[in-house]
Structure formats: structure tokens, C-alpha cells
Amino acid sequence: MTDQSQIDALRDIEISPRSLLIDGKTTAASDGATLDVISPLNGRVLTTTAAGTADDATRAIASARAAFEDGRWRNMPPAERKKIMLKWADLIEAEALELAVMGVRDNGTEIGMALRAEPGSAVGTLRWYAEAIDKIYGEIAPTAPEFLGLIHHEPIGVVAAIIPWNFPLMIAAWKLGPALAAGNSVVLKPSETASLSLIRLCELALEAGLPPGVLNVITGEGRVVGEALSTSMDVDVIAFTGSGGTGRKLMMASAQSNMKRCYLELGGKSANVVFADTKDLAQAAAVSAAGIFRNSGQVCVAGSRLLVERSIHDEFVEALGRAAATMKVGDPLDLSTQAGAINNATQLDQNLQFVETAQAEGGTLFQGGTQILRNTGGYFMEPTIITDVAQSHSVAQKEVFGPVLAVTPFDTEEEAVRLANATNYGLAGGVWTNDISRAHRMVRAMHTGVVHVNTYGGPDVTVPMGGVKQSGNGADKSLHAFGKFLDLKTAWFKL
Ligand code: NAD
Question: Does 244 share its domain with 96?
Fold first, then answer.
């Protein structure tokens, strides 16, 4: 168990400037440029990272390609590769606290959640895929007797993994686990506003024995480094998590370059549907509050639309409001904090703008809605509930990616389904009911990648995570994720 004094001992330690990682070596950007890392805890410069250039991205891709072509990783016996990945997970586990605190100072997530969801989750994910390395078999097709049809699974080549700021270690591990376990090489691009702990996580891979060039890290601006990766003729797969706007650019870049595969994990506007027959409404309210307000709503699957049966609407919203009002928002490095900082000043401004627009469009500000703890210099916002939201309102259609909940009542199951599906997104959702048949009907009817039933959040690495509609394609997690990083090859023999 981590105690507060261990965290406090790390909260102010100096973080040295971070470099790129190319071909197993740390290196400055080709033009020496750096980016300031601003801490959302106090608005101050924490350190700098290298502002990678397009040339740096090209060098990293070349290093990844060379590593792939000479087979230093993909042709290593599976049991050896597994050993290295397991050792990597052990090294991360040994540094979990340092990684979590550095990550929180960089991105603002509350430390209690960061410890579990960041190094904790990354360790579990990397171990899970490491264990799978020597358990993936080819297949023999059921052919006529004079033929033999073999199906091989082959690594694809160079994967560009582009990562957002909300859970950098967890999400990177969802890409790195299966991509590396499958034998590919990777160029990883962290977010400008959450790169520090991820750079360290990748350095630990080298310490664990991952051969140079197999994993390269390019920090810097998305429009420079990300674009160089997405337009490259020598990247085979993009594995992206981030916003829909960037996702669109990646697909266009793919079409305009080498038609690289583009797997996108994008945003959501997930409906959390509460029926009046829910067994424990108080618990449903508390879990639903956590499902939107933890990490200050900066969770792609956040239940940001509450659809609640009209007969319990007022009672439920009151209960949820009480749960939200008692959540401790503030110092992300305090173990008792339940919602930390907004990642950056621009995001905070956007959140506040959403609240204004929601009211202008006819919504009612039930609770919250303002910036708090200004004296810290950091970016904090109250958990915010907006009622009387119609599906045409922006706050019902657009992802806020902040602590803002839009509430809409419904009268029938049919209406609940219609409202739940009435956005362009399809990432996640929730259903609360004591009727097992209704729960199954809702799971079938909701057009999303994940449906939580009588809970919200927390599916582990054993199940896929991915969106439908404009929430993306392909899935992270589970054995299905290998499909993105392995090609099928048929060998057809005449016997
Ligand atoms: P973003 O799209 O702004 O940035 C994501 C990454 O893309 C960053 O590394 C950024 O540098 C890079 N990038 C930016 N412009 C680029 C370009 N032109 N070409 C290539 N790369 C570029 O997203 P964000 O603000 O970091 O993250 C928040 C978004 O991520 C939200 O929409 C959220 O819902 C989504 N998200 C989705 C999931 C999921 O699993 N579906 C998980 C977490 C976050």
C-alpha cells in the first residue's frame, strides 16, 4: 500500500529534460528545439521534452524498419521475447510509484486512480500479452486430401502508435503489448501534454533487453511528428487513440500515402441509462457520478449522457448531485482526491464554454459549472450537472472530455434506446435495471463497443475495447487486438 508520505517525497523532485529515443539511444531533436512541459497542478513549467522534427520521425522509422527487416526481434525465439517483456513489466512495477507521480505532475489525473490505471494497468497488460507470445498458433485449413492449406500469422512491420494525454501508460500498453508481442517494431508518439512517464516506460523496455530500434519514441507536436508518421511510406500500421478530428487526418494521410492500416480509438458521448426498476438507486447514483467525474471526465468511455426514467428523474439527479458534491476535487497528488486537474488550460476553457452553450441552448445548470482552486495556478473544475438537455443540444452531441454531465429524462425503453443511439459516437454505454431480459435487450440495442450493466467502467484486459460509428474501428485489449498487428498468410500445397 502506498502512503501519502511516499508520494510527498516525490512531489517536487526535479525532472531532467527528456530526449527522443531512437535506435536505442537518447538524442536531442535534430534542430535542438524543445517543448515546455506545463504542469496542470500549478501552471508552471515542469521540464522540457525534445520537440521532434519530421527528420527525427524519419530516422526513427528507419531504425524501426531496420530492426524489423533483420529480424532481431521478430525472429527471436518466442520464449526469449516473452522473457524480455515480462522483465520489462517487472521493471515498471518496481518503479510504479515514481512513474505514477511523474505522470500525475504532467497530466493531472488523481494519484489514486493513476496508480491503478497507469503503471498498474500497464504492467498487467504487458504481462498478459507477453504470456500470449508462445500461445498463438497457426492453423491448418480443412481442405480436400490432395491439398494442404496452412495459415500463418506474421508480424506486419513498422507500427506507429500515437497516444493521447488522459491515460498515457495504460493506453500505450494496449498498443505496445500486442504490437511487440506479435514481433513488430514500433515508433511511439506520446501526447505533448503527457509524455514524461511514457518516455520512462519505454526506456525501461531497453533496460529489460528489448533490442535497439524495436521501440523508438518521438516526442513533439502532433502536427509535425504525428503528421510525419502518418504520411510516411514506410509505416505499415497506425494505432491511434485520440480525438475524432485527428483520426480523420490520419485516414486522409493514409489514403494519400501508402494506404497504411489505420486503427482509431476515438471519443465518445456515452449514454448511461437508468431504469426505475434499478435495485439500488443510491449505489447507481454513486457509481454513475464516478463514471463521469473521475479523472475530471477525461475518460473516453465516460458516461457523459445520463438518460434516466422520468418517474425517478428528480430523485436520481438529487442523489447523483449529492455524490458529485461530496467528491473531493483538488490536489492530484493527495491520495484522498477523487478528481484531479484538467489536463491543460485550453481544455478547461473548452469545458467552461460547453457549460455556457448548454445553458444558452435551453439546458439548466443543476450544479457546478465553474473553475475552482484558481489560487493554485492549476486547472480545476467542479463536477457539473446540466439537466433539461435535449438530444439536439451540443452538450448531448459533442464530446466535452471534461466533468460535465448532460441529463435527459425518458418514458419508455424504446425511447431510451432511441436517445442512447442518437449521436455519431458509439464507444460505450451503461444500463441499470433489475430486469435481466431488459438488460440483454438493451445490450443488443445499444450501438456501442462496450455496454456496462449495473456498473460503469472497469473492464479489464481480457475483453476488447473499441468503438463503432465515429468512435473508431478495431479494438484494443484482449486476444482480438492481435488482429491489428498480425497479417494472415496462406500457404497452399498440392500434395
Ligand atoms: P488528440 O487527437 O488531440 O491527440 C492525440 C495524439 O495525436 C497526440 O499524441 C497528438 O500529438 C497527436 N496528433 C495531433 N495532431 C496530429 C496530426 N495531425 N497527425 C498525427 N498525430 C497528431 O487527442 P487528445 O486531446 O490527446 O486526447 C483526447 C481524445 O482522445 C478524446 O477525444 C478522447 O475521447 C480520446 N480517447 C479515446 C480513447 C479510446 O480508447 N477510444 C481513450 C482515451 C482518449
Answer: yes
Catalytic residues: 265, 300
Does the structure show a pLDDT above 90 at 456?
yes
The answer on 279 and 251 residing in a single domain is no
For 280-333, what is each residue's pLDDT tens digit? 999 999 999 999 999 999 999 999 999 999 999 999 999 999 999 999 999 999
pLDDT at 47 over 90: yes
pLDDT for the residue numbered 28: 98
Residues 330 and 443 in one domain: yes
Whether 17 is covered by a domain: the verdict is yes
Query: In this structure, is residue 465 part of a structural domain?
Result: no
Residues 304 and 352 in one domain: yes
Q: 494519484: which residue's cell?
A: 111
Residue-level pLDDT at 385: 98
Domain of residue 403, residue span: 271-460
- Asked if 281 and 217 sit in the same domain, the reply is no
Residue 1: pLDDT over 90: no
pLDDT, tens digit, 9 for 90 and up, residues 87-128:
999 999 999 999 999 999 999 999 999 999 999 999 999 999
Same domain, 277 and 290: yes
Please tell me the distance between residue 233's alpha carbon and the centre of ligand 1 in angstroms.
22
Residue 430 and residue 347 share a domain: yes
User: Ligand 1 mean position to 162 CA, how many Å?
Assistant: 8
Name every protein residue with a CB atom under 6 angstroms from any ligand 1 atom. 162-166, 171, 189, 191-192, 222-223, 226-227, 230, 241-243, 246, 249-250, 265-268, 300, 399, 401, 427, 467, 472
Work out how many domains the chain is built from and give that number: 2
Give this prediction's pTM.
Answer: 0.98
Q: What is the CATH number of the domain that holds 67?
A: 3.40.605.10
For residue 466, tell me if it sits in a domain. Answer: no
Q: Tell me how far the alpha carbon of residue 237 lies from the centroid of ligand 1, in angstroms.
A: 16
